[in-house]
């Protein structure tokens, strides 16, 4: 009889573990300091960097401890929230540049497809966990959204506060998806957060851009709702991947439009547009490959492209 030799697992070196963590923290700190230097003298940009850093840290923390069964719904809701790339399209829609306006309009349209379709798909996924006879009043979490949508139009001075609260709801939505008992409410909290953020942006737009923005959102949202409702339940995961590719596309063309409108922007601004274009491209192609694999159009082996992604 062949004797099976147990593998000896070498204990991890605590020095290497801590050194890696320390170097990572130092690198992130250096990166933030570099961004601070690039934004020196620009109060608005400095505020945006602070928001970006805090939101990233909060989002990183809330995804810990997610139940394995909720990983796919969590990805679906975060994907729907990432459709707030629509806000970038809204902000650039009133530009004097025709090219930039076309790009911003396209970003707004595909982003609203992702927002509405993403939340419809998320809700359908979460409904699969419901038991017969379960009473669900999670829809009441749309109440904060109704308030946030009305607030910036009632008083434009409430636009900043609406944006902050909407961001908090989006983060809270992701946190709620970590637990089966609060997952249903989490989807509705996310809807409220996205709706508030969109409303805060629209309330600050020039009136001349509102008809075009409304039309694009209506068409995009309608298309997303139809797709989200008609897709087969077994095809929901690949639908999320397909929707997410729209986010990457929107990020790319919004970055390009911003560069067109601000050709003489600061180095910090230009760096942000380059990163937005690059990360958007990775998201677009990566999501399309994920869709192809989940849908059976591509093999399950790692896709090895010349030059990579």
TrEMBL record:
<dbReference type="InterPro" id="IPR034300">
    <property type="entry name" value="PNTB-like"/>
</dbReference>
<feature type="domain" description="NAD(P) transhydrogenase alpha subunit C-terminal">
    <location>
        <begin position="49"/>
        <end position="131"/>
    </location>
</feature>
<dbReference type="GO" id="GO:0005886">
    <property type="term" value="C:plasma membrane"/>
</dbReference>
<keyword id="KW-0520">NAD</keyword>
<dbReference type="GO" id="GO:0050661">
    <property type="term" value="F:NADP binding"/>
</dbReference>
<keyword id="KW-1003">Cell membrane</keyword>
<keyword id="KW-0997">Cell inner membrane</keyword>
<dbReference type="GO" id="GO:0005743">
    <property type="term" value="C:mitochondrial inner membrane"/>
</dbReference>
<feature type="domain" description="NADP transhydrogenase beta-like">
    <location>
        <begin position="163"/>
        <end position="308"/>
    </location>
</feature>
<keyword id="KW-1278">Translocase</keyword>
<feature type="transmembrane region" description="Helical">
    <location>
        <begin position="47"/>
        <end position="67"/>
    </location>
</feature>
<dbReference type="GO" id="GO:0006740">
    <property type="term" value="P:NADPH regeneration"/>
</dbReference>
<feature type="transmembrane region" description="Helical">
    <location>
        <begin position="74"/>
        <end position="94"/>
    </location>
</feature>
<feature type="transmembrane region" description="Helical">
    <location>
        <begin position="185"/>
        <end position="203"/>
    </location>
</feature>
<feature type="transmembrane region" description="Helical">
    <location>
        <begin position="268"/>
        <end position="291"/>
    </location>
</feature>
<keyword id="KW-0472">Membrane</keyword>
<keyword id="KW-0812">Transmembrane</keyword>
<dbReference type="GO" id="GO:0008750">
    <property type="term" value="F:proton-translocating NAD(P)+ transhydrogenase activity"/>
</dbReference>
<keyword id="KW-1133">Transmembrane helix</keyword>
<feature type="transmembrane region" description="Helical">
    <location>
        <begin position="240"/>
        <end position="262"/>
    </location>
</feature>
<protein>
    <recommendedName>
        <fullName>proton-translocating NAD(P)(+) transhydrogenase</fullName>
        <ecNumber>7.1.1.1</ecNumber>
    </recommendedName>
</protein>
<keyword id="KW-0521">NADP</keyword>
<feature type="transmembrane region" description="Helical">
    <location>
        <begin position="22"/>
        <end position="41"/>
    </location>
</feature>
<dbReference type="Pfam" id="PF02233">
    <property type="entry name" value="PNTB"/>
</dbReference>
<dbReference type="InterPro" id="IPR024605">
    <property type="entry name" value="NADP_transhyd_a_C"/>
</dbReference>
<feature type="transmembrane region" description="Helical">
    <location>
        <begin position="100"/>
        <end position="121"/>
    </location>
</feature>
<dbReference type="Pfam" id="PF12769">
    <property type="entry name" value="PNTB_4TM"/>
</dbReference>
<feature type="transmembrane region" description="Helical">
    <location>
        <begin position="160"/>
        <end position="178"/>
    </location>
</feature>
């Amino acid at each position: 009889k062949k004797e099976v030799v147990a593998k000896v697992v070498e204990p991890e070196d605590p020095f290497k573990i801590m050194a890696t963590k320390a170097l990572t923290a130092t690198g992130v700190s250096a990166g933030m300091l570099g961004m601070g230097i690039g934004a020196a003298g620009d109060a608005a940009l400095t505020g945006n960097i602070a928001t970006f850093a805090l939101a990233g840290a909060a989002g990183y923390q809330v995804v810990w401890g997610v139940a394995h069964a909720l990983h796919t719904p969590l990805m679906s809701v975060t994907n729907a929230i990432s459709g707030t790339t629509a806000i970038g399209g809204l902000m650039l829609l009133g530009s004097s540049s025709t090219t930039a306006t076309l790009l911003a309009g396209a970003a707004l349209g595909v982003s609203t497809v992702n927002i509405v379709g993403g939340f419809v798909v998320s809700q359908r996924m979460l409904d699969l966990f419901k038991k017969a006879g379960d009473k669900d009043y999670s829809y009441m979490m749309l109440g904060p959204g109704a308030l946030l949508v009305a607030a910036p139009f009632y008083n434009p001075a409430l636009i900043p506060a609406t944006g902050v609260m909407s961001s908090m709801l989006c983060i809270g939505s992701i946190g709620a998806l970590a637990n089966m008992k609060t997952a249903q409410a989490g989807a509705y909290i996310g809807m409220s957060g996205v709706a508030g953020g969109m409303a805060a942006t629209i309330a600050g737009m020039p009136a001349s851009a509102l008809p075009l923005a409304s039309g694009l959102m209506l068409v995009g949202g309608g298309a997303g709702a139809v797709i989200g409702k008609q897709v087969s339940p077994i095809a929901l995961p690949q639908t999320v991947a397909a929707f997410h590719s729209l986010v990457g596309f929107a990020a790319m063309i919004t970055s390009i439009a911003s560069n067109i409108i601000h050709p003489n922007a600061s180095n910090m601004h230009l760096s942000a547009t380059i990163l937005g274009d690059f990360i958007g491209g990775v998201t677009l192609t990566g999501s399309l490959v994920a869709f192809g694999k989940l849908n059976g159009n591509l093999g399950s082996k790692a896709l090895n492209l010349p030059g990579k992604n």
